[in-house]
Structure to design on (589 residues):
């Protein structure tokens, strides 16, 4: 925008300079008030052009004015340079050819006029080319900005889809556990209970023995099933606060102090993922850019929110723009209706606050 | 026309404004005539300068609107910038017409030698239009009312001097006489001379045409929407 203004100012400056040249020619000539009318009209056309956007062919107005006023004010021929400049400014630089022929054909022809027109067409064409290039660049920039916006939109949608898939997976797992418990463990335990109750009533020793044997088999099977179910439930990787502790432990040789308080069960898995990403990003940044010797990580979990605060004692205060990692985290925090802030004033401070939504709400 | 009414009321809201606006034309009627120059009584010769000052004083309301943030409020109100500006200018113009009327009609009633009062009235009206447009352009360069007024006063004195309103243009050096043609005040002085000495109507039309051209130029430059 600023560069555009610069071009605009330059164009205005050039237009005014051309009018001043005309005014000077009028001063040294013997022309009367007609010259003033002519200059005034050119000035009005110029101000209209600056103030409003008028059609590209408006340089014809200047040509007509010049032709009309040449009989009264011979130097009006110099006014044609204004028309040439305006034409060059809209890419019609070839107008110089008919104009030059007209100037040469005119009785009061002056070689200075040709030089002046040539200079004008050069300046006009150069400005036109620069503005055109600039416009093209602006267009590309706009396009890229739009694409970036669309990508961010897609990212948001993906994140949303991810949360939905996670919810579905949770439900599926819950169903699997309940089915497992109901179909196998429940049946066996009920069978064992019934067998025990029957054992108390039976008088025949052989029958009692067989019932006891049955109970034993059922209980033994139940124990195996329970072990299997529980084994299936236990994740291979660490989750929750254990995962965060693991990341901190893995970050050696950095000296990181980790402490947490509150009920970690309040935090859902998607939040843990977010907190994990924050912690990883912060540790990467500390190891990459900071000269910190000590980093403190605090995790506070209350009934209503989770707050992760990472603070180092580094002294480098970079005024850099947030990278894509941080921007992505900000976006994810926003998705979770939380906030993600970074402060580089006094060491590197990263705070992520996420609200806890109660289940069923 | 709400803005028009409001601007009109604001312009004559206090007694000082009212006195400046309407007492001066009355006083100007009774100012004496010069011996050799000017050809019209002093009150009429210098009335152009008065019109310039009054235009700036009146259009100061627009500057005040900008300074006080009213322009911003107006820009979000259901009224176009053009309408706001047009109604403002119309209100100022009405006041100036009234002043010209008081001056010329009063002069005729009192029995002053005005040669061609009707054409004089027309000339003052045209000059008023150019003058309001000039004031509008002037305030578009400034943010502060006082500073704009101070610089305006010095500029006005110079253009009135060079233009031939304060002293006969023939007394000026030749180069200044030539430059003077570029100033609206020159055309006013020429118009006054035409009223006094008479001449072809074409000449008078040229004078008015020039003043109207100036009005267009100043209006186009001055009507930029500025929100400080």
């Amino acid at each position: 925008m600023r560069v555009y203004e610069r071009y605009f100012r330059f164009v205005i400056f050039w237009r005014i300079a051309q009018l001043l040249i005309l005014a000077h020619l009028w001063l040294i000539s013997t022309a009367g008030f007609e010259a003033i009318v002519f200059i005034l009209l050119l000035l009005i056309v110029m101000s209209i052009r600056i103030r409003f956007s008028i059609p590209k062919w408006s340089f014809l107005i200047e040509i007509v004015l010049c032709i009309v006023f040449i009989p009264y004010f011979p130097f009006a021929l110099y006014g044609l340079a204004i028309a040439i400049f305006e034409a060059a400014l809209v890419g019609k630089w070839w107008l110089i050819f008919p104009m030059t022929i007209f100037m040469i054909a005119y009785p009061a022809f002056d070689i200075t006029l040709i030089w002046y027109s040539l200079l004008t067409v050069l300046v006009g064409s150069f400005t036109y080319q620069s503005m055109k290039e600039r416009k093209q660049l602006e267009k590309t920039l706009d396009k890229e900005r739009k694409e970036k916006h669309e990508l961010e939109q897609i990212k948001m949608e993906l994140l949303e889809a991810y949360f939905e898939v996670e919810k579905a997976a949770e439900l599926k797992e819950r169903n699997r556990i309940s089915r497992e418990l109901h179909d196998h463990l429940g049946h066996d335990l009920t069978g064992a209970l019934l067998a025990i109750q029957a054992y108390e009533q039976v008088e025949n020793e052989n029958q009692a023995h067989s019932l006891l044997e049955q109970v034993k088999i059922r209980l033994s099977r139940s124990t195996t099933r329970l072990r299997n179910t529980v084994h299936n439930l236990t994740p291979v990787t660490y989750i929750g606060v254990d995962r965060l502790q693991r990341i901190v432990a893995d970050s050696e040789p950095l000296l990181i102090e980790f402490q947490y308080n509150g009920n970690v069960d309040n935090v859902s898995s998607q939040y843990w993922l977010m907190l994990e990403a924050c912690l990883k990003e912060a540790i990467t940044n500390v190891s990459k850019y900071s000269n910190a010797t000590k980093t403190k990580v605090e995790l506070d979990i209350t009934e209503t929110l989770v707050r992760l605060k990472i603070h180092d004692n580094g002294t480098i205060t970079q005024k850099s723009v947030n990278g894509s990692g941080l921007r992505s985290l900000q976006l994810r925090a926003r998705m979770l209706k939380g906030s993600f802030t970074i402060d580089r004033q006094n060491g590197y401070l990263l705070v992520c606050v996420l609200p806890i939504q109660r289940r069923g709400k | 026309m709400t803005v028009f009414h409001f601007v009109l009321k604001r312009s004559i809201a206090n007694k000082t404004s009212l006195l400046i606006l309407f007492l001066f034309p009355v006083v100007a009627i009774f100012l004496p005539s010069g011996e050799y120059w000017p050809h019209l009584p002093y009150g009429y010769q210098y009335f152009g300068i008065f019109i310039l000052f009054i235009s700036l004083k009146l259009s100061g309301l627009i500057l005040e609107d900008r300074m006080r943030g009213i322009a911003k409020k107006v820009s979000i109100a259901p009224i176009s910038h053009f309408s706001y500006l047009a109604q403002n200018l119309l209100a100022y113009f009405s006041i100036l017409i009234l002043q010209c009327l008081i001056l010329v009609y009063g002069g005729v009633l009192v029995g002053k030698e005005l040669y061609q009062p009707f054409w004089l009235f027309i000339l003052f009206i045209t000059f008023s239009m150019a003058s309001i447009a000039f004031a509008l352009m002037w305030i578009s360069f400034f943010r502060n009312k006082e500073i704009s007024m101070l610089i305006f006063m010095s500029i006005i004195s110079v253009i009135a001097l060079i233009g031939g309103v304060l002293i006969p243009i023939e007394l000026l050096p030749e180069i200044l006489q030539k430059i003077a043609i570029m100033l609206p005040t020159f055309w006013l002085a020429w118009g006054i001379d035409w009223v006094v000495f008479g001449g072809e109507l074409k000449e008078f039309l040229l004078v008015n045409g020039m003043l109207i051209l100036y009005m267009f130029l100043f209006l186009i430059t001055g009507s930029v929407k500025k929100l400080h």
About this structure: Chain B has a mean pLDDT of 90. The interface with chain A takes residues 175, 178-179, 181-182, 206, 210, 213-214, 216-217, 220-221, 223-224 of chain B (CB under 8 Å).
